[in-house]
């Protein structure tokens, strides 16, 4: 069989960093400032990775914030 060995990384590399166990604060609509729905749509249509990721992050924040249901007209 194959022997599994634990990998050791140099102390100054990112792989050696220990993950944080504390939870991050959930972002809300107030944290992302007023953002226009048109800007989100244009970012999604652009096809650029950074713009698309930004738009999806903003949509996730807005969808999980219970105080901004009116933002989507629901």
UniProtKB/TrEMBL annotation:
GO MF term (any one): nucleosome binding
InterPro entries attached to this UniProt entry: BAF250/Osa (IPR021906)
GO biological process, one term: positive regulation of DNA-templated transcription
GO cellular component, one term: brahma complex
Name of this protein: Trithorax group protein osa-like
Protein species of origin: Tumerepedes flava
């Amino acid at each position: 069989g194959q022997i599994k060995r634990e990998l050791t990384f140099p102390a100054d590399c990112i792989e050696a960093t220990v993950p944080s166990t504390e939870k991050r604060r959930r972002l809300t609509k107030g944290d992302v400032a007023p953002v226009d729905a048109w800007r989100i749509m244009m970012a999604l249509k652009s096809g650029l990775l950074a713009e698309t990721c930004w738009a999806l992050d903003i949509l996730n924040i807005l969808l999980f914030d219970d105080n901004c249901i009116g933002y989507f007209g629901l």
